Amino acid sequence: MLKLRSYNQIVEELDRLKNLGAGLYSVGKSGLGREIYLVTIGKGAKRALIACRQHGNEPTSTEAMMEYAEELLGRGDLLEKVRVSIIPLANPDGAELYTRICSKGRTSIITSFIARSVKPYMGDMNRDHKKKKFPETMAIAKAVEQIKPDVLLDLHNFFPNFEYLMLRRPVHDFCPSISTNPKIKPEIMRKNVKICKIAIEAVKRVGGNPAEINGLKIIGEKLIGEK
Question: Under DSSP, is residue 82 helix (H, G, I), strand (E, B) or coil?
Fold first, then answer.
């Protein structure tokens, strides 16, 4: 079972990565005053930004990307070509609440949903990237503006919960999604689909069970010529 690290433990690990050569910066503070950190590895021309855990009750991206960051530090050949920036805790207040809930063994649909939101506003930051009411979404916007990434990944966590059980949806360990916004340029959509397909094949190679690309059937023929 995944053992969740506290906010302070994550910060200690980020400091260790900094000592190993990673760049470490604050891009803002949460509603309750916690620093929102950005860790950057590599000096290549191609730039990627990875945002983890906008929802506090979705911990796997944080834990996975912390391990990935350390692995990247040993890839000198790759880091000459790319620069990878990671926000490991986009919603540190919700994440810390969920870690405390799990440590006491009191998880439920209700407590999990409460931890999902940003504090103290009780809102979904993943629905706030246009208005930017929350400091957490402003922090991500600041990172995007500073880095100007060629690729931006927004990582989430899916649960085999009542929705999957009631609707009998299959449970996958990787669920790629693309935007269905018709205002996005077709060439960008094609790149999105290409990245998703590369990731799907990578998951299959290690024995995973990836889902089909969510949203592709909706915008396929109209925007990118995919069927």
Answer: strand
> Distance from CA of residue 51 to its chain's centroid?
4
* CATH of region 7-157: 3.40.630.10
* 52 contacts: CB under 8 Å, gap ≥ 6: 61, 62, 65, 86, 87, 88, 89, 90, 155
Give CA–CA dist 89/82, Å, rounded. Answer: 22
Per-domain residue ranges for the chain? 7-157, 173-227
User: Which phi-psi region, left, alpha or beta, contains residue 186 (left: φ > 0; alpha: ψ -120 to 50)?
Assistant: alpha
pTM for the whole thing? 0.89
Bigger pLDDT: 173 vs 29:
29
Per residue in 144-169, pLDDT (tens digit) is 999 999 999 999 987 665 555 565 66
Better-predicted residue by pLDDT, 210 or 121: 210
